[in-house]
Amino acid sequence: MTPPTSQDWHPYSWQQHPAVQQPTYPDATRLADALERLSHLPPLVTSWEVESLRAQFAQAEDGKRFVLQGGDCAESFADCRSDIIANRLKVLLQMSLVLVHGLRGPVTRVGRFAGQYAKPRSADSETRNGQTLPAYRGDIVNAPDFTEAARLPDPERLIEAHARSAMTLNFTRGLIDGGFADLHHPEYWDLDWVGHSLLAADYQKRVDAIGDSLRFMETLAGNALHEFSRVDFFSSHEALLLAYEAAQTRQVPRKSGWYNLSTHFPWIGMRTAALDGAHVEYCRGIRNPVGVKIGPSIDVDWLLGLCRRLNPDNEPGKLVLIHRMGASKIAEHLPRLIDAVQQGGHRVLWLCDPMHGNTQSTSTGVKTRRFDDILAEVHLSFDLHRAQGSHLGGVHLELTGEDVTECLGGARDLTETDLARAYRSQVDPRLNYEQALELALEIVSRQRRSAS
After folding, report:
1. Distance from the CA of 309 to the CA of which of 89, 222, 251, 434 falls in 20 to 30 A?
2. What is the rounded CA–CA span in Å between residue 10 and residue 2?
3. What CATH number is associated with residue 321?
4. Is 112 labeled as ligand-binding?
5. Domain presence at residue 268
6. Which has more confidence, 425 or 305?
7. In contact, 311 and 355? CB cutoff 8 Å
8. Residue 3 belongs to a domain
9. Does residue 4 sit within a domain?
10. What is the C-alpha separation between 367 and 288, in angstroms, rounded?
11. How far is CA 312 from CA 238, 266, 315, 316, in A?
């Protein structure tokens, strides 16, 4: 399985470094066979798409565009359905429409899907009623049912994850190429259940304003503006399962370097961001833009080490720092990190993940997040970056286009009692459609007030 080594890096050099959050497969031969087959399957994305995203991230670094990254905390194979994929795309398109109109600039849309099948775990095993089984690590590894057969890591799931990712990307591209994302027809994006949304009127005003603007520009131009009939859309997932990532890391003709062609934008989670760890070693060698989650526990030396290791040539659009502090901690920790990166002269794109630092449990032990905390962290992120002479280039959200009740608050003021109605996430709580759209509207409203 291991290709010839180079003096510095190759897709399997991570095997010489400590690798955490990796499952233990009971049959090494079956694993090797699955990875060999995976390495010969067609890539899911192309190198020129990756380069296009890097160029857009470079613009976002300079404040010339905004990045909206969002999707499920963890995809499931069962949710690879046309309606769920379309609804997920709809909510991101509607949020981006609000942001484009309100922030007066282009938006890069990055979905947390088509590969987000693995999840880090706080423990390798789980015990219930005296029985201990391997932890559920996402559908790419095992199944959530608490049985010995379901929790056994299965290498065939690697092939299934590739297939489900391919189907998701194929349908997404088909929708976009077919005019689903046409700004002339945002009514295509309506969700069936949102007719009574408290935010519908505000959103409709923005839709009408964009329609009027498009018609005015087309009148001046004398023909249709076809560049508004489709949008770029990119995929992302956490680069957690390194054998899966390495098997889809390729060289391409007439370009130097290696590309992870399972996704446009892989990121490293906080649990796997050790400087000498296998995940940093793997990600430092690929040409894709790479993200790193950073929290309040990270120190300046660690952060600067990540900058040097993951972007040694200080290339624009290459390194994305995704801070996830929590509304109560961000003011204490983020300024020193921004200052250190600035003093070190490192080029980075800053994104705010307002979800993970604000997770809490209800009185009955249900994991949730409060919309007010999520919104507060986003607002504080803009303010703190502005105060430091820096620039917040986007947000990283866990959301869904489904009518779930997993996060508290928002326009409908969801309470703990409401959570029982439609709590469907197997891992982390997500913003539902209304809450996600409300967040976009609030971002625009706050930024316009700050600019005036």
Report:
1. 251
2. 9
3. 3.20.20.70
4. yes
5. yes
6. 305
7. no
8. no
9. no
10. 33
11. 21, 18, 8, 11
Reported as a single tens digit per residue, the pLDDT across 59-89 is: 999 999 999 999 999 999 999 999 999 989 9
Domain around 340 = 13-451
* 309 appears as a binding residue in the annotation: no
| Torsion from C-alpha of 269, 274, 246, 32, nearest 10 degrees | -100
Bridge partners, 260 (sequence order): 249
406 annotated to bind ligand: no
Q: Binding residue per annotation — 370? A: no
Q: Is residue 386 part of a domain?
A: yes
Q: Rounded distance, CA 185 to CA 218, Å?
A: 15
160 marked as part of a ligand binding site:
no
With a CB cutoff of 8 Å and minimum separation 6, the contacts of 228 are 182, 183, 184, 214
324 marked as part of a ligand binding site = yes
Tens-digit pLDDT profile for residues 408-420: 999 888 999 999 9
CA 327 to the chain's CA centroid: 20
Distance CA(13)–CA(281), nearest Å, equals: 7
Is 428 labelled a binding residue?
A: yes
Cα separation, 409 vs 72, in Å, equals 19
